[in-house]
Amino acid sequence: MGTGCSSGYALDPGIGNIPSFKIVLVGDAESGKTSVFMRYFKNQFDYSYRPTTTVNIENVVKKLNVPEHTVVSMAMWDLPGREEMDLRTSYYKDVDAAIVVANIADQESVELASTWKQDILNHAVISKKRVVSTPEGSKVVTDYEPADHTQIPVLLLGNKYDLVEERHASQEENADDEEDKPLLIEDNKDADTQSLPKKDEDDFLDTRDEDEDGDRTSPGAEKRDGESENPGKDGDSKREDGGKEDKEEEKEVTVWKYEDQQEVEEVPAEIQFLEEFAEKHGFVGSVAVSAKNADGSVHAAIQALIRHLIERKLMDRTLDRMTEVKVNRAKVMKGKKKKKKDPKAFEPLDKTGIKELDGLFNKCNRYMALIHETRLAYRQSVRLFKSQCMEAEMVPEGPKCSMEDCVSGLKAALEKDSLELLAEDDNGFVTLLVKGQERDEEEKSEDMRDLLQTFQTEVAVASRTILHECPGAIAALQKLDGQIEEDCRGAIERAAQDSPLTTRELRSIQDAVDMSRARIKHSSAMAHECLQDVESSYKKIKAAMIW
């Protein structure tokens, strides 16, 4: 299996139009990567531990419901836990997603998951082929460029959850034993000093037996215990009711509780730490599984990751298909050459010539333009802030630079001048403040002044704009899209009654509507992505201030 990784044909590009994904499985040694691999593909578990020394590659075709049944081709690579880094980087070529496996029962193993995630993002590359002319003829050359970090979701898989369950079960048993010891001593003392009536003694012993079996006391038993405490009063009621009470006790087996009365199940500390760690370090999600137990947890976790990939791919494919239709139609039309448009400028939705639909499209344009401009401003501000940090040599140059690195570098540089960097919450985001001895403008570092000004006037302003404007824009676009879907057919029929439309015109109108709706959904997705980016930047800045 290990020789397959060096071949360019190790990954099947897909069958026809079936989406194809490559997922790598990484993690520390003895975290259970191969067990997860075997559980998902063969539903097996090997109790003997053998370190993985070669790369295991498995191809499989799955059917997912997202929401329609979709066939997906997937290749999963199980990478060795101990491998030369120069060799491992070749495995990250054209990777679509990654799963970092950690031992959830070992906190140190979970903490090391972030290094694996960063290793993948730092070395993942995309291959692009091009044809070049040589004296011997045409030749295909493969170029490699760094992959976009935002396009590679990484799932944190907390394996060996069965060890956590065993640990908690053992702790509960020990706690129960400790609770039972003083009770037994006290009961023995009572038995020596008191003489109970025979009936009460029998009830008392029955209760003791039920308590020792795990406190599984039925409501009927509790009722009998209460009657034994008041023999006079309850005895009279028994004689009056006759055999009626016995029938009620037979029916009364389980007491149901409403949701507000039910006790909330306590989440184990290991799962809480796993979820908090995944959120802090930008994992797409975290799941606690047990490759040892055939409980379906491994299968469900990996299927959820594949579903996330296919949903995103289907959304992008719909937009690309409609764009292709538009381009092909434009090539057929003859006309004057138009000036080149600014690629960064917002392009309004196409008009259909139907007043009702065009009015809805104009309303959508307002919110879509807002999302486009705020997203563009945020990305430009973050790019400017990072470039200034690189120029000031506070962080190393390259695509690895993150917001957390920039703030950490700025904080360290200020500490050299006996100054302290503070991050205070301000209107949903943060404001960076400098604490220390007041200085004249001439004494202040020009780089520091420019960096702080860029953050306050560019990054912070763009982030707050996204937080305040995007949620409302998303809700408005969803409402307008639903209205377009509801009114589309009727509007086209009314327009055809007023002025007959040819088949080509009807098809053109329908294509324009489909294209516009695809762009509306894509704009909403971009707004959600902006909100996630701002939230991630906020958390990274807060994390940088802790260290």
TrEMBL record:
This is Uncharacterized protein. It comes from Strongylocentrotus purpuratus. Residues 168-255 are annotated as: Disordered. It comes from the Eukaryota. It holds the Pfam family Ras. Gene3D superfamilies: P-loop containing nucleotide triphosphate hydrolases. Residues 181-207, 221-255 have a biased composition (Basic and acidic residues). One of its GO terms (biological process) is vesicle-mediated transport. Keywords: GTP-binding, Nucleotide-binding. The lineage of its organism: Eukaryota, Metazoa, Echinodermata, Eleutherozoa, Echinozoa. One of its GO terms (molecular function) is GTPase activity.
